[in-house]
Amino acid sequence: HQIVHIQPKRCLALDGNYRESRWFTPWTKARVLEEISLPECVRAVEGQRTAPFGDAVLATNDTTLASESCEEVFTPDSPHVHLGADGAEIITNGSGSHHTLRKLDTRVQLLAAATRSRGGVYLYANQRGCDGERVYYDGSALVALNGRVVAQGRQFALPEVEVVVCTVDLEDVRAYRGSRPSAALQASVTEPYPRVNVDFSLRSSLSLNQLRLQSSLADPDFKVHYHTPAEEIALGPACWLWDYLRRSGAAGFFLPLSGGVDSCATACIVANMCRLVCAEVARHGAAEGGGEAAAAAAVLRDVRKVTGTGTEYVPTSAQELAGRILHTVYMGTQNSSEATRQRAKHLASQIGAFHLDVDVDGVVDATLSVFTAAVDRVPRFRVHGGSPRENLALQNVQARLRMVLSYLFAQLLPWARGRQWGGLLVLGSANVDESLRGYLTKYDCSSADINPIGGISKTDLRAFMAYCVEHLGFSELAAILEAPPTAELEPITDDYTQTDEQDMGMTYAELSVFGRLRKIGLCGPVSMFHKLLAKWPALSPSAVSAKVQFFFRHYALNRHKLTTLTPAYHAEAYSPDDNRFDLRPFLYNIRWPFQFRRLDELAAQLDEEVTTGAVDQQEQPQPKGRKRAAEDASAQVYPRKKQLRARTADGGRS
After folding, report:
1. What is the C-alpha to C-alpha distance for residues 558 and 653, in angstroms, rounded to an integer?
2. pLDDT tens by residue, 442-469
3. Is residue 259 within 8 Å of 340, Cβ to Cβ?
4. Residue 16 backbone class (left: φ over 0; alpha: ψ -120 to 50; beta: rest)
5. Pairing between strand 121-126 and 128-130?
6. 138 Cβ neighbours under 8 A, 6+ residues apart
7. What's the rounded Cα separation, in Å, for the pair 34 and 38?
8. Which pTM was predicted?
């Protein structure tokens, strides 16, 4: 054995979730090769003292190959452009590209483009699994040849190692390059890279007929397999949860199951995790030795470790495994409905989870009695004549006590079920849109150990639940999808039922639009207003301005909550995660004086143009001044705006 070349990384990942320059320095000496002394531990094994280190191309007896690392294929001036021009026929890339929804096509297009203009083979090996962070690496190794992907590995799977085999004909690369004179002309003036000669041949010694019989022969008509976003939600977070569970040493999961979309979607992800585990264990019995059998056996060992069972235990079904791993509790109060109670119960039964139904009014009343005894005043809900501040505090105390009870159950439920070691990981279930808006109570059930849906929008979660109804057989989800989302923290009366969208003052669909424009579109209030004028032509400029101001006011007001968000699966590029991804101040001026003043001026000007007929739009009333115009438009769009402003003043749920 010999180390023939060490290729340092030329470009570091410095955006989004990555800060690689904290630990590494990029190699900036283009086309320079040096000799590096090897560590003593390597010398002891190989007897080799030095190795070539730097920018180079490997020249074997029959081809030339070079490598990129991870981020380099995503950069504008990727190394493969110059390496290919200098004759490298094969480019390899050992990558750590994390999963986000709808991202696979980006990788596929990059590899196709990398080999289309100049020809060549691109071998892309992507990491798979959870590295103990908020991201999940989804695998899907790819092989591209002359602008087309010809082989692909599984995108989501529990085994950590997968080998994708593909046989390609290097003469196809040479013929492709020879047919492009312009590329050859550019190659003739390309500055050459140092060569490291290796006395080795990559070509197979098999005859052509023998090669044709191989199933690994590159298929020019190969079709890349793409999962739908709903399937990605079913698979990605499930694999992430399993990795986290088996590596943490916990005995399972605890989930406060409210009967709403978010907590039920979280339960379904755990259920699908159990399905994936059982399917992998079944391969243990079917595989006839080799890598697949070893990978399945490793999963089975992890199952026995997590469940605390003996060496003979094999899960009989996903439901049976869920009964050991997933623990759910419906924590009802006097404000909870029988409908959500029954939905939680029936879904837990379909999944197979260990489920409890408890009332927590006693804990809430006992807590409030301490405050009442201290100040000699009794707070009341709004529907009973209380102020907005009283109403909000009474909601928050319920939510926060559920968090305290969640950790109590998580610590003691395994003991209560006869298991002497191991606690449960508490699962959070706040989605990305609610976190962005701040529609959660600080340190309530959104505060947990990990959150599989914290980077997923409400719209995508609903599509995922519809997928679960159709493909996983969880029929109870149909009723949950039909019900309006509600926190059930206020009393239900004949003329009032609390709903999320009414509380937030905006729809979930609008929240997704705001989130993408804020983060992905890099928009502040004014630039977002300009973009939304075109996106929402049915609304008057004043109404659009009011929506933008309303969003940014509450985003700023609740930004402090994002500093305490539960570590969540990173699935969206507009995540407001304050820890690694969305590094921004957590204290903003909620009045946005310059931006909002400019919005009012623009809205008044455009409304004037509409009124005078300068714009082809239905006639709108004349603006009534900066503040009045904004309030009137906002009241039209958000009738509860003034009440909501009072409710959010102390950073509570809304």
Report:
1. 9
2. 998 778 999 999 999 999 999 999 999 9
3. yes
4. left
5. unpaired
6. 98, 99, 104, 126, 128, 155, 156, 236, 239
7. 12
8. 0.88
